[in-house]
Design goal:
The complex is a heterodimer. Chain A is mainly α. Chain A has six helices and no strands. Chain A has one domain. Chain A starts with 17 loop residues before the first helix and ends with a helix. Chain B has a single domain, classed as FAD/NAD(P)-binding domain. The radius of gyration of chain B is 22 Å and the shape is globular. Classes of the chains: A mainly alpha, B alpha/beta. The structure holds flavin-adenine dinucleotide.
Chain lengths: ~150, ~525
């Protein structure tokens, strides 16, 4: 199948703790314990991602899981600076997989909040993002020097 | 010996077979013919369905097809990643490997071809589009009319009538979504000298017709086939069922040989690996512009010639309607093109065509990575901002970028050398300013240059020319240097304007098939 995922690079480094990554990323986005089904699906897809992740990126990703508390902040800064794509890809993956679960639909489709409600939510999100971005930059530096 | 062989059952091949059958010739249609999946069984609105059902198999799939843009290096248009539609591109790169440079070629070996996944925006070519072709719009008109009847196309007389031509036989338009209605109302209050907007001409049914249902507004456009949206496969199946064509699948055509006023076609059975031959008085090739060129080059054993390949460069950008921020998602929006925009752009010095769509149909997660906030805040944006958004795809004529080249290599692979999309975004200024006047905002950072190859409008490898010539066609579609070989798909286009070309390609295929039928009968 043309679109079926296939590995980009062979690597000698074994992928580490895909389920640990899953739990951390899920918690960073949804602030809960990851449901079993989502964990399984994430691990299956992350295994494919792992195969196309370079050794260097994987090491950075593993360091991030081990050493960084606020993965959401780190991912944001990493996304803006195009560093640790392995982390941003796994956040994306999680968001795709979780959308297939009926119990998580309210994260993706909201009810009407009205213009003011919507605007406040966006301004609040902007503020939260700024704070996370500043924090993320420090975390990225810490990761770089680790 | 067969009277006529048609290679390919995509939009062009089916249109040619339809015309032949109407001329009382029963063609043999040869095709690889990857079969479609059985129809889906979701009858609710997809957003309601998602609240009660796990949609992993529908949206991601057991083979992770839905994640292929994330999990592989080869990015394809999002719609092609949906599990229900994976057959459209299945095995494409095994059956016809392509070495690509700065180009992403999308090929199909399915019954019905790429059109199983298309947006079904179907537009008549006019004088403007046929400039440089050795044919006139009048030559295509009778076939546009037949096709309009066969397909069922919605649309109406509006500001784009001059660009899209006659409204004869059109079905009433589909309902506009909330966001598009607001945008269109704003346009009608404040028109622009250079920019015209109107209803899209879409091959989707606004009312039930010939055993096909009316479009049901269930937001399933990306995840389940609806026969309300036309695919040439439906005509193919009907013609086959009525025994008006002979359709043979699992055959990969390699080459032809002409001899004694006939053509022998050589093919490989893709299941058994056996070689087979078929003989006919006439051969019509409609394997899609890329594979048609391959068959032609293979038949000439030509590993040197480099042919041009035309494609529409494109830009894509989201449009925010700020007044709708915080509103609920319009879950009944038609998921394909609702409006078109035609811009006689002074800044670019050419006519551009835009497709304006709602963004309800794709997965919400599809937008996550392009939003600028932190992960949790991006999810909030998905809930509050996305319901106020539209998306515009702006197509440019092929001439706006350097020509892409296609050739056959000694190892049997095609080689396509394209160019990175370098469309000048600064020249969009007048359009973006006008959109703002309509209360529709977009931001420079969000403009995306669509990768070369992704418009999937391929043409012009064997262009029609008044006097024909080597690797050219005569106006009747005959390939230069041959007696009985005709090119029926967009490979024979002399030029490619910004208008989506498939409808004109289908009409032209019928025109060529009509001429071929006449020749067969006169022999
Ligand atoms: C997501 C998407 C949206 C689109 N939207 C639009 C739109 O709104 N409007 C528009 O005008 N166009 C649109 N297009 C483009 C449109 O789908 C194509 O232009 C059109 O379908 C091409 O038809 P074709 O018959 O030339 O070739 P194809 O569809 O490529 O069909 C080729 C046929 O030939 C067969 N074949 C190929 N090689 C061989 C061989 N060697 N031996 C035997 N058989 C062979 C294949 O099996 C297939 O049946 C869209 C495309 C995509 C992917």
């Amino acid at each position: 199948m043309q679109n079926s995922p296939s590995p980009r690079t062979d690597s000698t480094v074994e992928p580490q703790h895909p389920d640990r990554g899953a739990a951390r990323i899920y918690a960073a986005v949804f602030r809960q314990t990851i449901p079993e089904m989502i964990l399984e699906r994430f691990v299956q897809a992350a295994t494919v991602l792992d195969r196309r992740t370079s050794d260097e990126e994987r090491v950075l990703y593993d360091h991030a899981l081990k050493r960084i508390g606020d993965l959401e902040a780190l991912e944001l800064a990493a996304r803006y600076t195009h560093r640790v794509p392995a982390l941003s890809d796994r956040f994306r993956l999680m968001v795709y997989i979780v959308e297939t679960d009926p119990d998580h639909q309210h994260y993706y489709v909201g009810s009407q909040t009205g213009f003011v409600g919507g605007l406040l939510s966006m301004v609040g999100g902007g503020f939260q993002t700024t704070v996370k971005l500043i924090k993320g930059w420090f975390l990225l530096k810490r990761l770089g020097s680790a | 010996m067969h009277n006529v062989i048609v290679v390919g059952s995509g939009a062009a091949g089916v249109a040619a077979a339809l015309e032949l059958s109407q001329c009382r010739i029963r063609p043999l249609v040869l095709d690889v013919g990857e079969p479609a999946h059985p129809p889906g069984d979701v009858h609710d609105n997809f957003y309601d369905y998602k609240r009660g059902h796990d949609t992993y198999e529908m949206t991601i799939g057991r083979d992770l097809q839905g994640l292929s843009n994330l999990l592989t290096d080869r990015e394809v248009p999002v719609k092609l990643t949906a599990p229900y539609i994976d057959y459209v591109t299945r095995n494409a790169h095994t059956l016809s490997p392509i070495d690509e440079v700065d180009f992403c070629a999308i090929q199909s070996f399915a019954s019905g071809g790429l059109a199983n996944a298309w947006g079904a925006g179907l537009y008549r070519y006019t004088d403007h589009d046929l400039e440089g072709f050795p044919i006139q719009p009048g030559d295509l008109d009778p076939y546009f009319e037949k096709l309009t009847e066969e397909i069922g196309i919605c649309g109406e007389a509006d500001d784009l009538e001059g660009d899209f031509s006659s409204t004869l036989g059109l079905l009433p338009p589909l309902e506009l979504s909330r966001n598009i209605t607001r945008f269109y109302d704003a346009y009608r209050r404040r028109k622009h000298r250079e920019i015209r907007i109107g209803r899209a001409r879409v091959g989707a049914l606004s009312g039930a017709r010939n055993a096909r249902p009316a479009y049901a507004y269930r937001s399933l456009d990306f995840f389940q086939e609806s026969t309300a949206v036309y695919s040439p496969r439906y005509t193919l199946d009907r013609l086959s069922f009525e025994n008006r064509i002979e359709h043979r699948t699992s055959l990969l055509v390699k080459r032809w040989r002409e001899h004694d006023g006939a053509v022998t076609v050589e093919a490989r059975d893709t299941v058994t690996g056996e070689q087979c031959t078929f003989e006919a008085k006439k051969l019509l090739i409609a394997a899609g512009a890329i594979n048609t060129s391959k068959i032609v080059l293979q038949s000439h054993d030509d590993y040197e010639t480099v042919l041009p390949l035309l494609e529409n460069p494109a830009l894509q950008f989201p449009i925010v309607l700020p007044k709708l921020i915080g509103s609920a998602l319009d879950v009944t929006a038609f998921g394909l093109v609702q409006l078109n925009l035609v811009w006689d752009s002074q800044t670019y010095g050419m006519r551009l065509q835009g497709s304006i769509m709602d963004i309800t149909a794709p997965n919400r997660a599809e937008f996550f990575a392009s939003l600028p906030y932190s992960a949790r805040a991006n999810l909030a944006l998905i809930r509050t901002l996305l319901p106020s958004m539209l998306v515009m795809q702006l197509f440019f004529p092929a001439s706006s970028q350097p020509v892409t080249h296609i050739s056959l290599q000694a190892n049997g692979h095609l080689r396509i050398v394209g160019h990175p999309n370098t469309l000048d975004l600064r020249k969009l200024g007048p359009l973006l300013r006008y959109l703002r006047r309509l209360g529709a905002w977009t931001f420079g950072r969000l403009l995306v240059r669509v990768p070369a190859g992704h418009s999937v409008h391929y043409a012009g490898t064997l262009p029609m020319h008044e006097s024909g010539g080597r690797y050219r066609c005569t106006p009747d579609g005959r390939l230069g240097g041959t007696e009985n070989v005709f090119i029926a798909d967009s490979a024979s286009f002399s030029r490619l304007t910004a208008k989506n070309m498939s409808f004109a390609m289908m009409a032209n295929a019928m025109r060529i098939a009509h001429g071929v039928a006449k020749e067969v009968k006169n022999r």
